[in-house]
Design brief:
about 400 residues
Length: about 400
């Protein structure tokens, strides 16, 4: 006799129960955690290098040219591998590609501790993984939180700042605590990648119900001038940010600070990005036109960057706070504009891929590599002040135009 015949209610399997009542809530929280952990991991694998750069250079006998290449490779990789994000997501699904990205970053982190050639090979793998994570996480937000873009982009930007601040401040102390080896200081940052992989695997285990990729079809967006303006703004502003990430500690050391003091000031710079990164997208999402808030962040970030080289040394902590607010808010508004200017989720996915891919390539060439070469050519940092001013002015023009109330539709 069946359980029904006996008057006993049939037992629902745990999977059926999960699908029926708890699956949407679990998916939502896993998506939130995935956004937070993915954002956190976008910076430490890169920003932990600069505080340890002198040790790496001395141990491996790297010339300034090869140091410049090392600092530029990850940023270029962000653009080179970025165009693969949309087709891979269409082919394998969003979560699957995110797993691939985390695995690539994890493998690169392990590999780069084994000598000169592995250092560069691992850096390329890290750049590939971070590229996919950085481009597809906003797509995840657009897909799973279409009515909460501002707050979720704010959390995304805040976690970017937290990861950068933590890795910059702790890179040297962790290296010293683990035997004084730069390899240990870099390898430590594979730890946050592990929960990220587990979270996305958990998201995959729930299936695709209610969470299919928004990257369903190819769209064309480059017919719209706003796409080009947004791309140019992102590229130029990213060049300022990555120049400071790569060369900020060296600039501060040249002003007479020691490694710990420069690391502390850089951590202030990154920590200051968190509140502006959180609040600016929320404010921008409520405005029809984002020009004023974009201009304010660009001016503050550019003037602050110049101040790190010109301001009195006693004021550098305050300067780092200001430049962090400006660049954190500016980078956050650039990412948020990708979503706000897009007319559909498909356009958002394509725009995120194009803007970030091209933007990071140009940013990598104009920013860290150019600063390194200009420093080598002149033997000082004075010319970098002019470089910051020119790039900041150009990004202001393009950012102002990209922040108008316009919508990009596919052709």
């Amino acid at each position: 006799m069946s359980s029904i015949d006996k008057g006993v209610a049939p037992v629902r399997s745990s999977s059926t129960f999960l699908e029926g009542s708890r699956a949407p809530l679990v998916r939502m929280w896993l998506s939130i955690l995935l956004v937070l952990f993915s954002a956190f991991n976008l910076r430490p694998l890169l920003t932990s290098v600069a505080p340890l750069l002198r040790d790496i250079q001395a141990d491996l006998s790297l010339s300034n040219f090869w140091v410049s290449v090392l600092m530029t490779v990850p940023v270029i990789c962000l653009g080179v591998f970025g165009p693969l994000a949309a087709p891979l997501s269409r082919r394998f699904g969003l979560e699957c590609v995110l797993v691939m990205a985390v695995v690539a970053a994890l493998a690169g982190t392990i590999l780069r501790s084994f000598g000169l050639v592995p250092l560069y090979m691992g850096t390329i793998l890290i750049g590939a993984g971070i590229s996919l994570l950085g481009i597809l996480t906003p797509v995840l937000i657009k897909r799973d939180f279409p009515s909460k873009v501002g707050p979720m982009m704010g959390l995304f930007a805040m976690m970017l700042g937290l990861g950068a601040a933590a890795s910059t401040a702790l890179a040297v102390p962790i290296s010293q605590a683990l035997g004084g080896r730069w390899e240990a200081g870099l390898s430590f940052w594979m730890v946050p990648l592990v929960p990220t992989a587990l979270i996305v695997l958990g998201r995959m285990a729930l299936g695709e119900k209610g969470g299919r990729s928004v990257v369903q079809a190819k769209v064309r967006i480059m017919h719209d001038p706003v796409s080009w303006q947004l791309m140019g703004f992102f590229a130029l502003f990213a060049s300022l940010a990555y120049a400071l990430i790569s060369w900020g500690p060296s600039m501060l050391l040249s002003r007479g600070l020691d490694s710990k003091s420069s690391g502390f000031i850089m951590s202030i710079y990154f920590l200051a990005q968190m509140p502006s990164g959180l609040l600016v997208p929320i404010i921008a999402g409520k405005l029809r036109d984002q020009r004023l808030i974009t201009a304010a962040m660009i001016i503050l970030g550019t003037v602050g960057a110049m101040g790190l080289l010109l301001a009195p040394t006693w004021s550098l902590s305050g300067v780092a706070l200001l430049v962090g607010i400006g660049q954190g808010g500016g980078f956050a508004i650039a990412l948020t504009l990708i979503v706000l200017r897009a007319g559909t989720p498909q356009v958002a996915a394509r725009l995120s891929s194009v803007v970030q891919s091209v933007g990071y390539v140009v940013g990598g060439l104009v920013g860290p590599f150019a600063v390194g070469m200009l420093h080598d050519m002149t033997g000082g940092w004075s010319v970098i002040v002019i470089f910051f001013a020119v790039v900041g002015a150009a990004s202001l023009v393009l950012g102002w135009r990209a922040s108008r109330n316009r919508t990009i539709l596919s052709s």
